[in-house]
Design brief:
152 residues; globular; alpha+beta
């Protein structure tokens, strides 16, 4: 009886460890610290969507940070993006624009996690503005591009 109980506890513990690892794998991106750290700062706007709007775009998560003046944060943002991009097996597709050694825009299609597509998008705008976006869901790359670049 003790042996059976021991095996059950061991399997339950292993299951809990694996499920929390999967959650960490989704949130294990370095950029996630930026949302936590800067989401409530002055001159920074954080948007996090939920509910029907997400489902209508085939997303399960959408988070963005819009910086009115990214200057004080730019080095850390670029460091986090570089870290996430360089993790083995993390990124499937990369598109970047680098000007004078500064990352001006980035698009990273990450390796799917739990069957969900994941994307990171970064863009430096005019007058030191910037936008950082994290998206995950069932939308494919073509659907994402159509959503981002559709005529308004």
């Amino acid at each position: 009886m003790k042996r059976l109980l021991y095996k059950y506890v061991l399997l339950l513990s292993l299951g809990l460890c694996l499920s929390s690892y999967r959650l960490q794998a989704q949130e294990g991106l370095q950029i996630s610290t930026l949302f936590e750290k800067y989401g409530d700062r002055q001159n920074v706007t954080m948007v996090e969507l939920n509910g029907k709007i997400l489902k209508s775009y085939k997303m399960s998560k959408y988070r963005s940070l819009v910086f009115k003046d990214v200057t004080p944060y730019l080095a850390e943002i670029q460091k986090c993006l570089k870290h996430d991009k360089e993790q083995p097996g993390q990124v499937n597709k990369t598109q970047e624009v680098i000007e004078d050694g500064i990352l001006r825009s980035a698009y990273y299609q990450l390796h799917p996690s739990d069957g969900k597509q994941r994307y990171i998008i970064f863009k430096l705008g005019k007058k030191n503005t910037a936008t950082l976006v994290y998206i995950e869901g069932s939308l494919n790359e073509e659907e994402l591009m159509n959503m981002l670049y559709k005529e308004q």
